[in-house]
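[job 0417] fold request received: Alpha-L-fucosidase
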Amino acid sequence: PRSPEMKSRAMGVPLLLLVVLGSAESAFRAHRRYTPDWPSVDSRPLPDWFDKAKFGVFVHWGVFSVPAWGSEWFWWHWKGQGSPDYMRFMSDNYPPGFSYADFGPQFTAHFFDPENWADLFQASGAKYVVLTAKHHEGFTNWPSPVSWNWNSKDVGPHRDLVGELGTAIRKRNIRYGLYHSLFEWFHPLYLLDKKNGFKTQHFVAAKTMPELYDLVNRYKPDLIWSDGDWESPDTYWNSTDFLSWLYNDSPVKDEVVVNDRWGVNCSCQHGGYYNCEDRFQPSRLPDHKWEMCTTVDRQSWGYRRNMMMADVADEAEIIAELVQTVSLGGNYLLNIGPTKDGLIAPIFQERLLAVGKWLNISGEAVYASKPWRVQSEKNASVWYTSKGSVVYAIFLHWPENGVLNLQSPKTTSSAQITMLGIQKDLKWSTNPQEGLLIYLPPSPPSALPVEFAWTIKMTGVE
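[job 0417] inference complete; emitting structure tokens
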């Protein structure tokens, strides 16, 4: 017969095993392995920094910034489509026989100061920045080992633009993302795969995947903004193989965020968060995290010398889009295009600083907010966000009588209502019909801390 001490130890073995097994199960859940298929990859939780960030700046910069005419699709419109307008532009401004590759040395980035860019992005209130590492033209803004003589180290700036901006951005605790196009318009290996009905993968093996792995290992981006996905399936790109590695074994496996452009039919279906399409703007609250990407110059993502003032979104329009996007649970990614010299046009600086000025007052209702039970009033001039028990109502039009009528909130006896940027409480009363009436400050809107999109903060409402 066992002694009491032995019996006690024996009885403790199953308990110890349960503790060990329980710890192992928790560890397994924390370090789960993702298999290279969409059900597994799509099950990976989105790192929460992205939802909290809400606002980012997109930067389209490359050799297309040299002709700086029409759009960043200049090469395709000129040589791919043979557009008469683009052909005429070239014959009027460049000598016969001038090729797109001849633009490369003129992409000098001579005045590019990453610290100044980072200061501007910080002042804009952006919590993440996404730079074009490579657009569809194939020119890489870093010394890609598989883009010989068509990258920013060998040609033009002779600098690592991706690395320099990343260092400056991260000094300011801003997340750094990289845009990367899967395909290239005129790369011979891609055209060969396309001719073969994408049954071969010469381009994927020699170019796309080496670039993606290099970008991740070298720069450790917080976000990968994939594009160029619309001609071929995700199986051609080996997208799930790359994403499973990214989530399992890469140096950014715990923090990295990706979008949904990984092959035909992936948009709004697969990936991390959804872009769906450029300037995507849902009419109701989506059930998946999403992002609206749009651009200050409505006609182009890259810089254009022929940009007109009428093409530029105004401050109120930009902030209204930001408000609507955040109210519907999205992030707002606002694009600007620098010049070939590395300068950001004053009109783009002005727009970014206007967003920053607004966020400096109203950011409490934006950063880390959640959609409320109602996203907007029926007339779409009032949009709601929330944080815990606090509800924010952002109204886009100042009522003529100075009384804001909100139909959705239900007040309680402990309700307290203020306006962000103004210290004192606002007077309010219940509306005999529905909701509440808020008596706004008697000052004209021009005298308030923000000039448009004013924010009401409400506690004690249901």
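[job 0417] notes: The radius of gyration is 26 Å. Residues 13 and 393 are 58 Å apart (CA to CA).
[job 0417] exit 0
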